[in-house]
Specification:
The structure holds two protein chains of two kinds.
Chain A (H helix, E strand, L loop, with lengths): L1 E4 L2 H14 L5 E5 L6 H12 L15 E5 L4 E6 L16 E5 L13 E8 L5 E8 L2 H8 L1
Parallel strand pairs in A: 2-5, 2-6, 4-5
Antiparallel strand pairs in A: 1-7, 3-4, 6-7
Chain B lengths: L1 E6 L4 E8 L3 E9 L1 H4 L7 H23 L8 E7 L3 H18 L3 E5 H7 L11 E6 L4 E8 L2 E7 L5 H11 L6 H9 L26 H11 L6 H26 L4 E5 L6 H13 L3 E3 L3 H4 L4 H12 L16 H7 L5
Helix pairs in contact in B: 2-3, 4-11, 5-6, 5-7, 5-8, 6-8, 7-8, 8-9
Classes of the chains: A alpha/beta, B alpha/beta.
Chain lengths: 145, 340
């Protein structure tokens, strides 16, 4: 699935639609260069559920993992930019796991839904999202509606 | 009165003892910076393991250096938030165990609060003052009306300033930590890249917020053109950062009519920030205070001293007090209550 984003507002709208499709056990793998918008996507995803959490969402590069308790499910926001490897086995299935710099993680034989989002920088605010789904046909369907 | 301070929120294992009459009796810091270098930053599990290994020898040395007995301590202060949770819990457990064994009260301290009040170990600053907190994990502005009376003005919406330094250093292949490397390299460069000053002008709700992600992305776009020298990239980036920090800080100082600014956290060691903020503040009749370098980086002297201020107000907590990985300083002090 490919989504073209023209500006931040469109990214916000897409993140909201995306959040609405989630059940609370998904793993979302984000790919994209520095400044592509991985943290911004996560920020909008969380704030579309609880607007007051918007300012709480920022880069976990330093802390490696931030946890946001939304009213629907916890969101685990992980950043592998520095550390390349992080054991998520304890939290799989207990909330939505968003991983920045997913190039580094290996996930095998999992039965939870996995959504891979590649963010390509097309211009100052223009982005192309290339989305792949594993065990997540219902989310693909929900996003296509 | 003697207070023991314990700090393990990130990659330094530290203990210190502050005496009400004599000042700092000891200040021991065991740094893990060499261990984490290959990761370009702190690796949480590794940090926790090192803290576990270091905490007892560090505590032991702090007591010996102070020339006192453990039982001479009146209270145990510890960094309870914010930080890497796996690191925080080591110091918190050590503090609780000691407090229990010695039957002494426990005093929790916020890491950022401690960085700000560390300044008082060297000189008194009149309230109210403005605090600019800049480090690898934080970029925040507070009005400090008094001890425990904090007003949050704004903070970063994405990357902390120290993190932006680390990432730009990495783009340029310069190593870790990025702050001192870029600071030094930039003295040889010229400002040849046009870079944005994020949130310097714009929406009023972001007047005191910061954003360094866009700046970082702009640096990346420019460096990918391969036409700039690393020292010029470093210089242009540093000028953009300092420009934003200084302008927002002075704007806040003017709006809230404060005469003193305290700069705290690791990035307060940045030479260019020190130079420009001191000069520009002076023009407005404002005094910019930077702590000595040993207080800019993580240490327990600041924890012992801030713990002393809190203990004087009679605020202690029970053994069930939990550390918090992320909590703002103004919200943290609201968690504390006077004992019954």
């Amino acid at each position: 699935m490919e989504i073209n984003i023209k500006n931040l507002n469109e990214l916000r709208n897409f993140s909201k639609k995306f959040a609405n499709c989630l059940k609370g056990n998904e793993i979302i793998l984000l790919y994209g260069n520095l400044g592509a918008g991985k943290t911004t996507f996560t920020k909008y995803l969380v704030s579309s559920i609880n607007p007051e959490l918007e300012d709480d969402v920022n880069s976990p590069t330093f802390t490696v993992m931030n946890i946001y308790e939304t009213e629907k499910f916890p969101v685990y926001h992980i950043d592998l930019y520095r550390i390349k490897d992080f054991d998520i086995s304890d939290i799989i299935g207990t909330g939505v796991i968003v991983i920045e710099w997913s190039e580094y993680i290996k996930l095998e034989n999992l039965d939870v839904p996995i959504i891979k989002i590649k963010i390509l920088t097309e211009g100052e605010e223009e982005r192309k999202l290339i989305i792949e789904f594993e065990n997540a046909e219902n989310i693909k369907k929900c996003l296509s509606e | 009165m003697k207070i023991l301070g314990i700090e393990t929120s990130c990659d330094e294992t530290a203990a210190a003892i502050y005496d009400e009459e004599k000042g700092l009796l000891s200040n021991v810091v065991s740094s893990q910076i060499e261990i984490h270098k290959e990761w370009g930053g702190v690796f949480p599990e590794l940090a926790a393991r090192e803290h576990t290994k270091n905490i007892l020898p560090v505590l032991d040395k702090a007591v010996k250096d102070a020339g006192i007995k453990l039982s001479d301590i009146d209270a145990v202060a510890f960094t309870a938030a914010p930080g890497l949770i796996v690191s925080l819990v080591i110091g918190v457990s050590a503090a609780k165990a000691l407090a229990f064994a010695l039957d002494k009260p426990l005093v929790p301290v916020h890491h950022i609060e401690a960085h700000i009040f560390a300044t008082f170990l060297e000189k008194k600053v009149d309230f109210p003052f403005l605090a600019l907190v800049v480090s690898g994990g934080h970029t925040e502005l507070y009005i400090i009306n008094a001890f425990e009376d904090y007003k949050y003005l704004g903070g970063t919406l994405d990357d902390a300033v120290g993190e932006a330094y680390d990432k730009v250093a990495r783009m340029l292949g310069l190593g870790y930590p990025g702050g001192p490397i870029i600071d030094k390299l930039s003295t040889k460069g010229v400002c040849s890249l046009e870079l944005p000053r994020p949130l310097l002008k714009g929406k009023p709700e972001h007047k005191y917020n910061f954003s360094f992600s866009g700046l970082k992305a702009a640096v990346l776009r420019e460096t990918e053109k391969n036409k700039y020298k690393p020292e010029d990239v470093a210089k242009s980036f540093q000028e953009a950062v300092v420009d934003v920090l200084v302008n927002k800080t002075l704007e806040a100082a003017k709006e809230y009519n404060v005469k003193n600014i305290v700069v705290a956290g690791g990035v307060s060691a940045n030479k260019r920030l020190r130079e420009v903020l001191t000069k520009e503040a002076k023009k407005l009749g404002i005094n910019a205070v930077f702590p000595s370098l040993y207080l800019c980086t993580d240490n327990a002297a600041m924890v012992a001293y801030t713990g002393f201020l809190r203990f004087k107000k009679g605020k202690t907590v029970g053994y069930d007090f939990q550390p918090h990985a992320r909590i703002r300083m103004d919200r943290f002090v609201k968690l504390l209550s006077v004992p019954n």
